[in-house]
Each structure stands twice: as structure tokens, then as C-alpha cells.
Design brief:
Layout: E1 5-9, H1 14-25, E2 29-34, E3 53-57, E4 70-73, H2 80-83, H3 87-108, E5 111-117, H4 144-164, E6 168-173, E7 176-177, H5 188-197, E8 202-205, E9 211-212, E10 215-216, H6 217-228, E11 238-240, E12 246-247, H7 248-259, E13 265-268, H8 283-289, H9 297-312
Helix pairs in contact: 1-6, 3-4, 5-7, 5-9, 7-9
The structure holds nicotinamide-adenine-dinucleotide (NAD) and uridine-5'-diphosphate (2 copies).
């Protein structure tokens, strides 16, 4: 295989760090760009000695000039508590980050992949969600900075493709979990695991009947790389996620069981605009990418619990 020069924005985050690692394993030259807002040098410390890995502390809202063959654009906080902390910065990151990386792709003639999200479907009225569903998103709510930012990024990707012929790939990622999520990330899987390991109350928001579909990180990264290397002209958007669908109550009970925890479940208010259901249709990914997830929720949770045990020193 020929060594490619690959830029990963958001490369010090949860998904980005796994992606950098895999791309290096495959023999590539990787530039990781991150402003360390939610990411951490700890996530990439094990890559720092590799001569084919470079870390640049940089904010993607600013122009960036490097020479690369491929770009994975992942920079953007993904957890609701983080993306709502400074919603204007979140909007800028999605939109200006897309613009700058697309400008870079245009100049370098690089292929560029956008990490979009199931949030483009909002609180969906069509279930499960195929790529053809246009979504039900509140443009003025607390989640809009993220949802509409990601929707605008998709628009920019398709406009750069139509107007300038930029070689784009768009994936819509459904809830993904695994090692290297931050313990303070605020997303449901890491919250429940950290609470269970500490024998603290497990916080369910709302009645716990809302559903999500959880994909283990290794499966997700595999799908992302397959999409980047898919046939010319296949732009997506393509859903990448695990079609297994669980209520938050089922998730809480499974985490308690697998962690061998004494935690009790407590109920907290449901955040505004929290989607009630989410499950991907993955027929397109199966057909175009020959991809489907292989790791069950139980197996993935067990691996993630083991990671947090070591991280937190709880045995
Ligand atoms: P994460 O928060 O761990 O990673 C995001 C990374 O982007 C962090 O390292 C952060 O420091 C960096 N970043 C944020 N703003 C930046 C900026 N302005 N300039 C440079 N770097 C910046 O989250 P993640 O789960 O790894 O998500 C990665 C990408 O995948 C995000 O774009 C997210 O929207 C998308 N995604 C993730 C999920 C999921 O379930 N994990 C689902 C859908 C979409
Ligand atoms: N850009 C960048 N790196 C590059 C090329 C462009 O960061 O290597 C930025 C550039 O600053 C601009 C954006 O990408 O703001 C869009 O670039 P494009 O060439 O499409 O637009 P223009 O510069 O014509 O506005
Ligand atoms: N959630 C919960 N307890 C928590 C954190 C989240 O019940 O401690 C719920 C949240 O309200 C949502 C679901 O779990 O219904 C998934 O939340 P997350 O923030 O992980 O992702 P997203 O809402 O973006 O899918």
C-alpha cells in the first residue's frame, strides 16, 4: 500500500484518536489537528513517538495550510453538555471548520470526509432513519448549534462537490462509545459506567423509555475508513451505526449487571428537544461499503467498563 498523507481534525478526541491510531497502523503519515477543547494529549500520547505522526494545536475556525492527500473532518464537541457550553463556538467550529477544510481539500485536490451525525434527523418522525429522511430539527433550541451546524456543514460539502468538484464523503454517525471517552464527557454510556463503577446513583433523564442505537468504536472506525476509500463518485451521506436499539432504562440495567454494581437508578428531568428514538437503516453501508457492525452492545460495554476500571483505578 502507498503511504498517504492524511489530516485528521479533532484527532485528539475520542473517535479521532482511534482513527489516527488505525491510519498509522495501516502505514500512513498522519497529521492530527486539535484545539484540545474536549480532546486530550493523553488520547494520543502513545502515538507521539511515531515519526509518521504529528500533532498541531490549532483551531479549525482558522485557516490551515498543509499538504495532504486525504482529510477526515472530526473537529467538533459531540457531547450535549460540551457543545452547549459555548454554542456560538460550536456553530463556528462546524461551519467555519467545514469551510476551511473544504478550501484546503480544493487547493490540495484531496479527498475529504465529514463526520456528520444522526442529529441531522433531529427528533425523528420516521423510524428507523434512512439517509433519505430529511429530519425534524428545531432551528432555535439548545441543541440547534450542533444539529444545524452539522446540517450546514453537509450543505457546504455538497456545494463544494457540485460547484468545485471536490471529492467528498459524508457519514452520519449514530451514538458511538468505547475506550477513551472522557469520564466527564457527559454522554450516557460514560456517565452510566462511571456512576456504576463508583456505586453512585445512575441518572436517567426522563422516564428512560427514549431509545438510542449504540455502536462500538472499532466498528465505527472500520466503517469510516471504508467510506473514505469507497468508489469514486459515492459521496453518501451514509449512516454508520449499530441498528440494535435500546431504551436508556435497558442500558442502565445492562451496565449495572456487567459492572457488578450496587448502583440504584434515579430519574432526572429530560433535557429540552431530547430525541425520543433513534435507529439507523444501514442498507446503504452494507451495499456500498460491505460494512456492518460486528460487536454487540454487551461485548462493547464489557470492554468499555474494563477501560474505565483501569482509568479510575476501581477493581
Ligand atoms: P470528542 O469531543 O471526543 O472529539 C472532538 C474533538 O474535536 C476534540 O478532540 C476537540 O478538542 C476537537 N475540537 C473541538 N472544537 C475544535 C476546534 N474548533 N478546532 C480544533 N479541534 C476542535 O467527540 P467524538 O465523539 O470523538 O466526536 C468526533 C466527531 O464525530 C465530532 O465531529 C462529532 O460530531 C462526530 N460524531 C460523534 C458521535 C459519537 O457518538 N461519538 C456521533 C455523531 C457524530
Ligand atoms: N483555506 C485553508 N487552507 C487552504 C485553502 C483554503 O484554510 O489550504 C481556507 C481559506 O482561508 C478560506 C476557506 O478555506 O477561508 C475556503 O477556501 P476557498 O478557496 O474555497 O474560498 P475563498 O478563499 O475563495 O473564499
Ligand atoms: N441520558 C441519560 N442520563 C445521562 C446522560 C444522558 O438518561 O446521564 C440520556 C439523554 O437524555 C438521551 C440519551 O441518554 O436521551 C443519550 O444521550 P447522549 O448525551 O449520550 O447522546 P444524544 O442525546 O446526543 O444521543
Amino acid at each position: 500500500m502507498q503511504r498517504k498523507r492524511i489530516l485528521v481534525t479533532g484527532g485528539a478526541g475520542f473517535l479521532g484518536s482511534h482513527l489516527c491510531e488505525k491510519l498509522l497502523d495501516q502505514g500512513n503519515d498522519v497529521i492530527c489537528v486539535d484545539n484540545l477543547f474536549t480532546g486530550s494529549k493523553d488520547n494520543i500520547r502513545h502515538l507521539m513517538d511515531n515519526n509518521y505522526f504529528e500533532f498541531i494545536r490549532h483551531d479549525v475556525t482558522q485557516p490551515l495550510y498543509v499538504e495532504v492527500d486525504q482529510i477526515y473532518n472530526l473537529a467538533c464537541p459531540a457531547s450535549p453538555i460540551h457543545y452547549q457550553h459555548d454554542p456560538i463556538a460550536t456553530g463556528k467550529t462546524s461551519i467555519m471548520g467545514a469551510l476551511n477544510t473544504l478550501g484546503l481539500a480544493k487547493r490540495c485536490n484531496a479527498r475529504i470526509l465529514q463526520a456528520s451525525t444522526s442529529e441531522v434527523y433531529g427528533d425523528p418522525e420516521v423510524h428507523p432513519q434512512p439517509e433519505t429522511y430529511r429530519g425534524c430539527v428545531n432551528p432555535i433550541g439548545p441543541r440547534s448549534c450542533y444539529d444545524e451546524g452539522k446540517r450546514m456543514a453537509e450543505t457546504l460539502f455538497f456545494d463544494y462537490n457540485r460547484q468545485h468538484g471536490v471529492d467528498i464523503k459524508v457519514i452520519r454517525i449514530f451514538n458511538t462509545y468505547g475506550p477513551r471517552m472522557s469520564a466527564h464527557d457527559g454522554r450516557v454510556v460514560s456517565n452510566f459506567i462511571v456512576q456504576a463503577l463508583n456505586n453512585e446513583d445512575i441518572t436517567i433523564y426522563g422516564d428512560g423509555k427514549q431509545t438510542r442505537s449504540f455502536c462500538y468504536v472499532d466498528d465505527l472506525i472500520d466503517g469510516m475508513i471504508k467510506m473514505m476509500n469507497s468508489r469514486d463518485g459515492f459521496t453518501g451521506p451514509v449512516n454508520i451505526g449499530n441498528p440494535g436499539e435500546f431504551t436508556m432504562l435497558e442500558l442502565a440495567e445492562l451496565v449495572i449487571k456487567l459492572a457488578g454494581s450496587d448502583s440504584k437508578i434515579v430519574y432526572k428531568p429530560l433535557p429540552q428537544d431530547d430525541p425520543m428514538q433513534r435507529r439507523p437503516v444501514i442498507d446503504l453501508a452494507k451495499k456500498e461499503l460491505d460494512w456492518e457492525p460486528t460487536i454487540s452492545l454487551e461485548e462493547g460495554l464489557a470492554r468499555t467498563i474494563e477501560y474505565f476500571r483501569i482509568l479510575l483505578g476501581i477493581y
